[in-house]
Amino acid sequence: MSSYISAVNQKLLYARQLLALARAPGTVANVHQQAATTQSVAVQLHQAWLWHCCHVAETYKLQNPEAVTDGDLLVTLLAEQGKSPGEASELQTLQHTPGSWLSELLNAYRHIYQLPIVRRAEMDVDRLPMIALDAPESIDWSLERAEIWLHSLEELIDRQREMMLEF
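Request: output the structure for the sequence above.
Response:
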């Protein structure tokens, strides 16, 4: 069995566990806790997606599957070997389709690492200066969005693994 399969499965499990903890009976997650959980899920799912890309590369006998960093490079490297599997094309298309669950996930992942923009300094009730921070673009950090990303990625991976078994 490929080590990529195990690694992907582990990241999917971690994402499911994070969401289960946030949804556990008696848990009341405020907006910040939900955002923290959703960001953590996005990190796990991004890595699962990346390793799934590497698994596709490995399945189609790419010389250096760990060199794959996204759907574009996967398609390019496979094309250099005269291969154009549907799995790679689907990953690339989803990555670039505005509004697709994958483009949303990848965009959210990128935003985790962007420094917020300082909007203005405000005074709080104790007259201490508080800096209001805005993200450059609004991201939906809800648990529902994280669940959509998780279920969509699981469905994609399961379907593509079945297709690659036939290869």
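Residues 3-166 form one domain.
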